[in-house]
Design a protein that fits this description.
283 residues, 4 strands, 60% helix
């Protein structure tokens, strides 16, 4: 199977209302069932909020749509050249309701969905976001090629998220090279403040992250605080778990190399390996 792009843009309603939005979602129910289950609230209130934003953002959405297909093909070519990877997947292009900007679904070789209303139309940030999401797929494909025991993966655990997000961020840096470091985390230009804060508070962040993990808080609460755009109560900055993930990946890459790092979740003692890394990095 070759990669397929499933572009739903043409069926998005010209003058959207709640009723026509729901018709659009029903027309692509296989995509939006997952989207609303994991990445966006499916309420009239949420849809009304989206309806208020579409007119202001529509020019940007159109520019994203004009560019994204060609950029996807370019990113896929780079993965082929650099990592000899093919992607036998479907890439869904949707206009969502301002939930996640992009995600992979819960398959071993996962399809990718990109929500164009949440993407920058500027070329570099858009390429980085695409490379990041393809990085998740690449992680799974490479792991599968190395005989991963998928039944052993605890998908809803923070240690798994650390390796996944660290790997995807790493791949985005390898595939789209030479950009301002902050783009690989923000997927936008001129947003250096987040990364400057994270680097300046590295020790404090690692301490607080580890404390939170060991506090008895649920994985759902950990995800919201550290990995979700809706979190950030501890420091006033969201998604700082991505910074922790990048720190972890880079430390292991220096020690054991790229391939062994992204295959860490194959190890029977994977959780202990992450625990040991955290212990070495807290004070």
């Amino acid at each position: 199977m070759k990669m397929k792009i499933n572009d739903t843009f043409g069926s998005f309603p010209d003058n959207p209302a709640i009723s026509s939005l729901r018709q659009y979602y029903e027309r692509h129910s296989d995509i939006f069932k997952f989207y609303f289950q994991f990445h966006c609230k499916n309420t009239d209130r949420r849809l009304n909020q989206a309806l208020q934003k579409y007119p202001t953002d529509w020019e940007s959405i159109e520019k994203v749509h004009e560019r994204i297909g060609e950029l996807i093909e370019g990113i896929v070519q780079r993965y082929l050249l650099d990592y000899q990877l093919d992607f036998p997947i479907t890439v869904n292009l949707i206009v969502g309701a301002y939930g996640s900007n992009g995600y992979t679904n819960h398959q071993i070789i996962p399809d990718i969905t990109l929500a164009m209303e949440r993407l920058s139309y500027k070329e570099d940030p858009l390429k980085v976001l695409i490379a990041h999401e393809f990085g998740h797929a690449a992680h799974n494909i490479i792991s599968n090629n190395h005989h991963m025991n998928w039944k052993s993966v605890q998908w809803d655990h923070p240690y798994t998220w650390l390796l996944q997000e660290g790997t995807a961020t790493h791949f985005s840096k390898q595939i789209v090279t030479g950009l301002n470091d902050s783009i690989y985390f923000s997927f936008n230009d001129n947003e250096d403040e987040w990364l400057e804060f994270a680097r300046g508070k590295r020790q404090v962040i690692l301490n607080e992250f580890t404390k939170d993990l060991r506090s008895g808080r649920s994985n759902k609460e950990i995800f919201k605080e550290w990995f979700s755009i809706n979190g950030g109560e501890n420091f006033g900055y969201t998604r700082l778990g991505y910074f922790v993930a990048d720190c972890m990946f880079r430390d292991f890459e220096k020690e054991i190399g790229e391939l062994n790092t992204l295959l860490l979740w194959k190890e029977d003692n994977f959780f202990q390996i992450v625990e040991d890394w955290l212990d070495q990095n807290i004070k």
